Amino acid sequence: MLASERRAMAYVDPGSGLLALQSIGSMLAAAAFFMRRRIMGLLNKKKPLASAEPRLVDSRLAGRKEDSRNAA
Amino acid sequence: MTNGTPIATFRDPAGSLSLEGDFAVRTIHPEARDQVMEFVTSSFCERLQDRGDMVASAIKDQPEGLQLLHPKVPVPTYPWEWTPSQWLAAADLTLSLCAEALDEGWVLKDATPLNILFVGSRPVLVDVLSFERWDPAPKEYPSHIWLAYGQYVRTFLLPLLMNRLLSWPLELSLFKRDGYEPVELYKALSWRQRLSSEAFWPVTLAARLDAKDGEKRAAKTAPQHKSPDLALHLLKRTLGNLRKQTRRAMPEYAGSEWSNYTATLTHYTAQESTQKLDWVRNVLEELKPARVLDIGANTGVFSALAAECGADVVALERDAAASESLYRMTCNSRLSIQTIHTDLARPTPAAGWENHETSSLLHRLEAKSDMVLMLAVIHHLILMEQIPISAILDLAHKLTSRTLVLEWVPVSDPMYQSLMRGRDALYGSLSEADLLTACEGRFHILRRQPLENGRILFLFAME
């Protein structure tokens, strides 16, 4: 019977105020995360294209390049 | 002795734990079988066990169900017997394991000090079922929420914080299985404390949010999931913030009555102290006890001596600052010493449902030691706790399986005189003869060494 009751949410009490508190903390951290990313984005724009991070390259394009190298 | 082995645990829907013979046996409920098997056979689990951060498990997969067999910890201790640094070590382990688990696609579903036991000075997570697969898109709550956050704050952070701010003893956790609610603490704090950097976030803000019925608001809102990468980032930030808050909640312990006891011995000259150390060392080297119980260990000088002679030591100390100092010494020296902050005259009772969820201290200590050390402690029990000598010897007889090392403090001793406080008629005529009478039928003398300050060291063997 205990097992069938599993995870209405969790078996430990998440609290109400503490749940809201964690949400607020996460919202603040998320806001800081996006702000930091935006600032980094602005800084990166000012840099020459050669210094752009590899992850900004379209992965499909990267795949094609790789394929062409393999074909050669 | 009373209040024995705890009954099988019953709160975790994934399984239950019972103590059977030499093992702690965890029976997994069928619904949780696959996930538990996935975890216990994972390289992550193996890594934690190899490192000693999690209890070892032997898998017993039978048609009637899955069981995990864990080795028993010889003398388990509970959070109400820990010093603040032990709480911090347990909290650090919990948070760091959760952060590491997230990297491997797992998460801790609960976070309570009751999931941790100490082996020597080292905290070990013993609840293998605490790990579950991390769900990047759960149905009931946003993916960046750690469900055990509330339990961590209530059971780890707030007891430490109240110990720091209002000197509420950590021993009170015995009566608070699920810790403190922020609302109840908010009422106890002054306005200045409510606005302090340590208390504002976990107490004041949490209590105000609670008052606004945050649960209803959360229930009305459909969960909005962040991308898995962002959710992981936020979860790790949450864990990092909890770690910082926990460190800020640590009490600032100054020296207390006994914490500098061994450093400020007014009743022992350096020569007398050396004489006592040498005698005890000789006894330890000759008898080579495997397990030693040091009662009234103070800052652990003799516990360390026993550990250096190869014994696994359990050190009892009732003074908070002295036991804190003792635990820190064991961490620095890496000696096999387990610190228990408790008062032997009022030992921890069995607790929980029907007094059967956790066992009494005396039950856990009974006959677990080859040797019991009672150095400079008997006069405290006689004069401060008013325990009869025969009762003290009776308890020592139950706790040791072979020998007892006891320091007799005569009436003329300055410490005895200061503790007697005018009760000369009752305690002014106690003598060595009374001690030896109390030993009859329990112990016989193997060695007797008078010290220059009038105290006498005895090595007794059980009858």
Most extensive chain-chain interface: A-B, 28 and 52 residues
| Structure annotation, total helices of chain A | 2
- What are the low-pLDDT stretches of chain B, counting only 5+ consecutive residues below 50? 254-258
Number of helices of chain B: 18
What's the alpha carbon Rg of chain A, rounded to whole Å?
23 Å
Mean pLDDT of chain A equals: 63
Q: Tell me the β content of chain B.
A: 15-25%
Describe the structure.
The complex is a heterodimer of chains A (72) and B (463). Chain A is mostly helical. Chain A contains two helices and no strands. Chain A has helices at residues 17-46, 59-71. The longest helix of chain A is centred in the middle third of the chain and has 30 residues, at 17-46. The N and C termini of chain A lie far apart (64 Å). Chain B is 40% helix and 18% strand. Chain B has 18 helices and 15 strands. In chain B, strand 6 and strand 7 form a beta hairpin. The longest helix of chain B has 21 residues, at 228-248. Mean pLDDT of chain B is 91; it is low at 254-258. The A-B interface holds A 2-26, 29-30, 33 and B 10-14, 29-32, 109-112, 140-142, 144-151, 153-154, 178, 181-183, 201-202, 205-215, 217-218, 226, 230, 233-234, 237-238, 241.
Give structural attributes.
heterodimer, A: 72 residues, mainly alpha, 2 helices, 60% helix, rod-shaped, disordered C terminus, B: 463 residues, 7-stranded mixed β-sheet, 15 strands, globular
Summarize, please:
The complex is a heterodimer of chains A (72) and B (463). With 72 residues, chain A is an all-alpha fold.
Sequence-ordered SSE layout with sheet pairings:
The complex is a heterodimer of chains A (72) and B (463).
Chain A: H1 17-46, H2 59-71
Chain B: E1 15-20, E2 23-28, H1 33-40, H2 43-51, E3 58-62, E4 65-71, H3 84-103, E5 106-108, E6 116-119, E7 122-125, E8 131-133, H4 149-166, H5 182-188, H6 191-194, H7 200-211, H8 214-220, H9 228-248, H10 270-287, E9 291-295, H11 301-308, E10 312-317, H12 320-333, E11 337-341, H13 361-365, E12 369-374, H14 378-383, H15 389-399, E13 400-408, H16 414-420, H17 424-427, H18 432-439, E14 443-450, E15 456-462
Parallel strand pairs in B: 9-10, 9-12, 10-11, 12-13
Antiparallel strand pairs in B: 1-2, 2-4, 3-4, 5-8, 6-7, 13-15, 14-15
